[in-house]
């Protein structure tokens, strides 16, 4: 069984309901949720919007291979009304990112693990620091707590 580290986030409509529904669908289609962080609120990262994001980190045990996890995530996002746009960053009902998959390093056109910008984003690091502070980044060889301490991102991340 693999251990997945997923980040859920969204800033459209009923943010809490979308996070809860996404977690339920992850549990149903991807694997057993071992741990989940508190829910955190942050301003949008990389673009402007009037509605803040809610984010939650999950640790999931799964038998699915990385590509199948990505395919399933895309299906869940679509079911929950995620609309993919040309802009790199935009508002969304739900976004599910694979942050880590065990200690794998994958660099393919449609799948990069660990998430390529996670160490630059407090909204990723803070929830994971709550539930997996000692998780070692397989590329940077630093723990989540070390990456958080070094992170230069100054966007506030506050628990609900």
Give a short account of the largest sheet: 6 strands, antiparallel
- Beta-strand level of the residues, as a percent range? 25-35%
- Please state the average pLDDT score: 94
Identify low-pLDDT runs.
none
Given the helix and strand composition, which structural class is it? alpha+beta
Helicity level, as a percent range?
Answer: 25-40%
Q: Which properties best describe this structure?
A:
single chain, 160 residues, 8 strands, alpha+beta, six-stranded antiparallel beta sheet, Alpha-Beta Plaits, two-stranded antiparallel sheet, 4 helices, globular
Structure characterization notes:
By secondary structure, the protein is an alpha+beta fold. The protein has four helices and eight strands. A hairpin with a 2-residue loop joins β6 and β7. α3 packs antiparallel against α4.
Topology:
Layout: E1 2-10, H1 15-29, E2 32-36, E3 40-42, E4 53-62, H2 66-79, E5 95-101, E6 106-108, E7 111-113, H3 122-131, H4 144-150, E8 157-159
Helix pairs in contact: 1-2, 3-4
């Amino acid at each position: 069984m693999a251990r997945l580290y997923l980040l859920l986030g969204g800033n459209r409509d009923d943010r809490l309901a979308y996070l809860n529904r996404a977690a339920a669908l992850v549990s149903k289609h991807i694997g057993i949720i071992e741990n989940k962080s508190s829910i955190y609120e942050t301003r949008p990262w990389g673009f402007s919007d009037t509605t803040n994001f809610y984010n939650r980190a999950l640790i999931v045990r799964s038998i699915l291979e990385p590509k199948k996890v990505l395919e399933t995530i895309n299906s869940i996002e679509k079911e929950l009304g995620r609309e993919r746009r040309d802009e790199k960053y935009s508002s969304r009902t739900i976004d599910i990112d694979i942050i880590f998959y065990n200690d794998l390093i994958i660099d393919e056109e449609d799948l990069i693990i660990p998430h390529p910008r996670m160490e630059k984003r407090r909204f990723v690091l803070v929830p994971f620091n709550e539930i997996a502070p000692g998780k070692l980044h397989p590329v940077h060889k630093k723990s989540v707590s070390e990456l958080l301490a070094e992170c230069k991102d100054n966007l506030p991340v506050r628990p609900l």
